[in-house]
């Protein structure tokens, strides 16, 4: 039986793009609704996947709903797979009284509540058949939701990790000399923005402790960092000459590839952070906090370090350990790359998604 799926997406990164290509190659009849600005649209077109251009403007996009309804009317679909909350909320009323199965995607922990009306129009709506979570932490968060006699259906949320392929990351590293970092220095990279939950303030607060280690340690902050308080704290740091701000980079993974370690000091609500995966694929040892899905990427002490969130002391201790143990750091970097290749590969993502499609459709037979 051919499975017919309408995918509604927006900004499809490489893992998502190759997931769709893999499903198409496995025999799924796919049609994808996405904006004509989607960064990897040509890969989908080259694979022979039918695309319909649409950018949803809001959760209540009347023109967008008309366009989606038109696609549903023109074709026959077994499943609608909504990759964003806007896609989910706009497509949900359109499939409400149909036999079409509805799958949602969830890439971040939190922000769903039984007391939030919007949540009942999206992820908590009983018409949603399955929610694919990018990490177990997200799945478990949803499964714990309850109020009075109601409890989130325990079989609705499932984990399917986003898959990667090492061949996507073959471009050469941006030389550390670009920022004046000596080759012999221990360089820690951090792809981060100034949202409070990303924990950048704790990384900056850890700088005095790092300075006291007495080693040549440099910090590379990758991303747009413009906050006055943040910049002032950096200028006041004893390591200010060893802190390098790259600004926004389209080649962040190649910048990270020149580092000895990478860190994401998040304090809450992480999914499966791309900012860490892009280091791991380049054999850069990761340091993550024990929050959200970040710890699921790492075998502690084997392919990286897991520390407590909101702790400047834990950050400086972890960086100091890796800087002082180059042999172990090198081994962890190699293991980190192997971890992604073995346990977070795109073939597994396609296989598990296809199995879920089949499970949903067989439940009606």
Structural account:
36% of the residues lie in helices and 18% in strands. It is α/β, with parallel strands linked by helices. The chain has two domains: 4-163 and 345-362, 3-Layer(aba) Sandwich (Rossmann fold), CATH 3.40.50.2000; 167-343, 3-Layer(aba) Sandwich (Rossmann fold), CATH 3.40.50. The strands form three sheets. Strands 3-2-1-4-5-6-9 form a seven-stranded parallel β-sheet, sandwiched between helices. Strands 12-11-10-13-14-15 form a six-stranded parallel β-sheet. A two-stranded antiparallel sheet has the order 7-8. Helix 11 (274-280) links the parallel strand 13 and strand 14. Helix 1 (14-25) packs across helix 14 (346-362). The longest helix is centred in the last third of the chain and has 18 residues, at 326-343.
Which helices and strands, and how do they pair?
Blueprint: E1 4-8, H1 14-25, E2 29-34, H2 41-46, E3 50-53, H3 62-74, E4 79-82, H4 85-95, E5 101-106, H5 117-120, E6 130-133, H6 136-143, E7 146-147, E8 150-151, E9 157-159, E10 186-191, H7 200-205, H8 207-211, E11 217-222, H9 228-235, E12 243-247, H10 252-256, E13 261-264, H11 274-280, E14 285-289, E15 305-307, H12 312-324, H13 326-343, H14 346-362
Parallel strand pairs: 1-2, 1-4, 2-3, 4-5, 5-6, 6-9, 10-11, 10-13, 11-12, 13-14, 14-15
Antiparallel strand pairs: 7-8
């Amino acid at each position: 039986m051919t499975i017919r799926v309408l995918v509604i997406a927006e900004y499809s990164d490489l893992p998502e793009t190759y997931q769709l290509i893999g499903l198409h190659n496995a025999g799924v009849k796919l049609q994808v609704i996405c904006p004509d600005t989607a960064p990897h649209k040509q890969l989908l077109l080259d694979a022979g996947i039918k695309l319909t251009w649409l950018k949803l403007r809001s959760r209540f996009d009347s023109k967008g709903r008309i366009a989606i309804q038109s696609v549903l009317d023109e074709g026959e679909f077994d499943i609608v797979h909504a990759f964003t909350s806007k896609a989910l909320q706009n497509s949900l009323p359109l499939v409400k009284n149909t036999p079409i199965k509805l799958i949602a995607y969830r890439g971040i922990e939190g922000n769903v509540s039984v007391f939030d009306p919007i949540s009942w129009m999206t992820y908590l709506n009983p018409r949603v058949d399955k929610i694919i979570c990018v990490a177990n932490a997200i799945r478990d968060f949803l499964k714990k939701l309850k109020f009075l006699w109601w409890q989130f259906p325990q079989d609705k949320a499932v984990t399917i990790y986003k898959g990667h392929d090492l061949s996507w990351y073959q471009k050469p590293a941006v030389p550390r000399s670009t920022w004046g970092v000596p080759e012999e220095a221990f360089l820690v990279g951090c792809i981060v923005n100034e949202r409070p939950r990303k924990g950048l303030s704790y990384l900056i607060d850890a700088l005095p402790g790092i300075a006291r280690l007495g080693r040549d340690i440099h910090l590379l902050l990758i991303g747009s960092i413009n906050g006055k308080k943040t910049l002032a704290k950096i200028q006041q740091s004893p390591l200010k000459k060893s802190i390098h701000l790259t600004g926004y980079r389209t080649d962040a993974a190649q910048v990270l590839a020149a580092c000895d370690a990478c860190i994401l000091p998040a304090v809450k609500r992480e999914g499966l952070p791309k900012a860490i995966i892009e280091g791991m694929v380049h054999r850069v040892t990761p340091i993550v906090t024990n929050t959200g899905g970040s710890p699921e990427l790492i075998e502690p002490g084997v392919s990286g370090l897991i520390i407590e969130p909101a702790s400047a002391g834990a950050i400086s201790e972890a960086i100091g350990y890796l800087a002082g143990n180059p042999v172990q750091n090198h081994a962890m970097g190699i293991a980190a790359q192997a971890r992604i290749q073995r346990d977070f590969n795109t073939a597994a993502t396609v296989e598990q998604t296809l199995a879920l499609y089949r499970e949903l459709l067989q439940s009606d037979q």
